[in-house]
Each structure stands twice: as structure tokens, then as C-alpha cells.
Amino acid sequence: MSIVxxxxxxxxxxxxxxISVFDHGFLYGAGVYETLRTYNHKxxxxxxxxxxxxxxxxxxxxxxxxxxxxxxxxxRQTMDAVEDLDEAYIRLLLTRGVGELSYDPAKCLMPSLVxxxxxxxxxxxxxxxxxxxxxxxxxxxxxxxxxxxxxxSNNLLNNALAMQEALKQNAYEGxxxxxxxxxxxxxxxxxxxxxxxxxxxxxxxxxxxEGITRNFIxxxxxxxxxxxxxxxxxxxxxxxxxxxxLTSTTREIIPIIKxxxxxxxxxxxxxxxxxxxxxxxxxxxxxxxxQG
Length: 292
What we know:
Blueprint: E1 4-7, E2 10-13, H1 24-28, E3 31-39, E4 42-43, H2 46-59, H3 68-80, E5 88-95, E6 112-119, H4 125-130, E7 132-140, H5 157-168, E8 173-177, E9 183-186, E10 190-195, E11 198-201, H6 212-224, E12 228-230, H7 235-240, E13 243-248, E14 252-259, E15 262-263, H8 271-289
Parallel strand pairs: 7-8, 7-14, 11-12
Antiparallel strand pairs: 1-2, 1-6, 3-4, 3-5, 5-6, 8-9, 10-11, 10-13, 13-14, 14-15
């Protein structure tokens, strides 16, 4: 089996995996999730992902029914069921569970936990060599007082609409603004600009998901002597940026050469982006090499 699914502790083929239509994750999008990948066959930054999963769950009053250790064991068992698995893509989905047609969380007696494992697919080399185009979408990122972007929610309609707009423009990703008009994040990744050899990214308080890889870039930059800072970013900053890139767990760092109609810098991936990517990969493999 190339894709294996674990539904509440039961491992099965992707074609056999099922969940009730009365699960509130299906009915209302009531759930949270995390996406991980492995280096050296080990889930990378597992504890950080779990901390964010718990935080997201807390914000919608949804508790994980397993300890982190028990969850890790389920992931490992699911990975073991994938044939000839090298590095893995791992997705954890925690939902409210099966209940009546009601918004009342008390109507759901037990959360559902789904784990999907499949082979990790690396980024195409030409994307790293040539960079990508990103659309500047008209879709505004959720206001923190509505569905807070810090919740990594299974309800991804805000992100999906931004990505749909990007796809119509033949773009690799869709960059969103917040309700104030500031640049915040892409539909599936965090966003960075490089100005004068300093990597800049919007603050979490500007209304975005606090990416695990985003945060890791601060550590990588410190080791490499590359300043990484939070900053308010606006449309005008695109015209003065030397480089730009996006970050995510599965894609690491992807250079951006154009946002909308604005060419970034010289229109080619820049040296800071390349150094950060190399540093991220080196540090990730080194950290997992020493894990038991």
C-alpha cells in the first residue's frame, strides 16, 4: 500500500478508509490538523507540531484523546504499514467526532483521529532553480476575531478560495492580505521578503498561522548569521525587495520571483534564500540523525 490511513487506531488502505457522515469534522469542519514530514525516516519537529495541534484544539474546545507518545506510536505503526517507504508525508486530523446535527460539542462523545501516511514527494528541481510566480489575491485572510488564522482548522475554505484564484492566474501560490491591507501569508505557506540581506516576515499578531517551518527559519538564520525579523509588509515592499520566498513543512523553502505583476529583485532566486534552504536541510537531517 502506497497510502495508508489510520482511522481511530484501525489501519487500512486508502480505498477502504471511511468516517461517518455524522462526524462533525465532515458536517461543520469542526476539527484541526497538522502536516509533518520525515527526515532520516523520523517525524521532524514532532513536539512542536503537537504543541500547535493542542493549541488549535484548545481554541475550539477540542482535546486530543491520546497522549503525545500514544499519538507518535500510531504514526509509527501507520508508517510501518506503507510499503517501501523512504521519507514520509504525515497528516493528522482531529475532529469533533460523531454526533447529532447540532453545534453543541457535548453531542459528540468521542473525537475522531485520522492519520494519513504516504511517501513524501520532493520539490521539483526547476522550481528551486527558477523560482515561482505567486498571485496577489483579492481574498482577505480571516479576521482574528472571526475564525482565528492561528487555528490550523480543517475548515480551509478561506485558504482554498485564495488558492483557486491563484490557479486561475496560473500561479504557484496565492498571497493574501489581512483586514488592514497588509501582506500576511499564502494559502498554504508563510511568506518572507529579503531586503538588504535581512529576511522579513509578518508577525503572528498580523493575523496568520504560526508556521512551524516559519519559526524554524529564525533558528537557521541565527546559525548562518542571516538576520530574520518580523515586520509589517505592504504591497509597496514588493517593489523594493531583493528576494522573496515561501515556507512550509513539506516544501521547505521555495524562491518567489514574481508576485502579481511585480518582479522580485532580479527575477531569479537569490543568495539569502538559497543559504537558508541549505541551512534548513542540513539542520533538519542533523537533528533527526541523533534522535532515537
